[in-house]
Design a protein that fits this description.
Layout: H1 3-8, H2 13-37, E1 51-57, E2 61-69, E3 72-73, E4 77-80, E5 85-86, E6 96-97, E7 102-107, E8 116-122, E9 129-136
Antiparallel strand pairs: 1-2, 2-7, 3-6, 4-8, 5-7, 8-9
């Protein structure tokens, strides 16, 4: 047996390596396409922040104060109530909202009188939302 001929003969190696490479490429492609189709990458960024808000009521306004927790993008926060809230208060949340930030919302044409006020967070793409804090106004 000639040793040089044994090491130089690579007829069977090429098809085996080709098959292995094709299988590897197919598996990687299936994983990438599957993650896009199942939208696995989006769930990580859509979690609601952990934040606590305090409420201070006056006859015609409510002060909403971020007391503790995560910093939140103001554009993702909504202060809601069944009463008609005027969003042109003297101070509103802007930019990012962190502990100590306060926004004042005016009430349009009615009194709070037991209304429930909520601070609601909504994800950037609108697919998820969560109530971060809520409070019931005192009856007037």
């Amino acid at each position: 047996m000639n040793v040089r001929t044994l090491f130089a003969d690579d007829v069977a190696v090429s098809p085996v390596i080709g098959v292995i490479l094709m299988v590897a490429i197919t598996v990687i492609l299936a994983a990438v396409i599957g993650s896009f189709v199942l939208n696995l990458g989006q769930g990580i960024q859509q979690t609601a922040p952990q934040a606590s808000f305090g409420f201070g009521y006056a006859n015609d306004s409510v002060d909403v104060t971020h007391e503790s927790g995560d910093t939140v993008v103001a554009a993702q926060l909504n202060v809601t109530s069944a009463a008609a809230i005027d969003y042109s208060g003297p101070t509103l949340f802007a930019g990012t909202v962190s502990a100590g930030d306060t926004a004042t919302y005016n009430l349009s044409g009615t009194e709070w009188n037991g209304e429930t006020v909520r601070v609601v967070w909504e994800s950037e793409d609108g697919s998820a939302s969560a109530t971060l804090s809520q409070s019931t106004a005192p009856a007037i």
